[in-house]
Amino acid sequence: MGFWSRTFTWWDGDTWGTKLFTWMNGDKVGSDDRGNTYYKSKKGRRWVVYAGDNDGSRVPPGWALWLRGTIDGLPEDSLPPVRAWQQEPEANATGTMAAFRPDGALGGGKVRPASTGDYQPWTPEE
Fold it and tell me: What superkingdom does the record give (predicted)?
């Protein structure tokens, strides 16, 4: 990524301002398997530097709890082990082609089934 795009864009990771603030005030606490890095200041403020797309739905649940201050310790130390039936969380797909589209929706590719016959549309009296 070029110098100017890293200076002024916030949607592709951290900007120079975020880098400077993090360098001056942040202590690295950990990172997740998606490459996001988590920091904490001496005053207790917590933040994340995203790896790529700045989308909060890409923060794993344990780290989301840590960011909000719900748990004090790191997720791997404070949370119970992952159970066999638990699924990996998915990122929010709104606005993408992977988003849910019901039958009949634009871009859904399917036609809404006909009504069952118990529906009578309202028509104004003349």
Answer: Bacteria
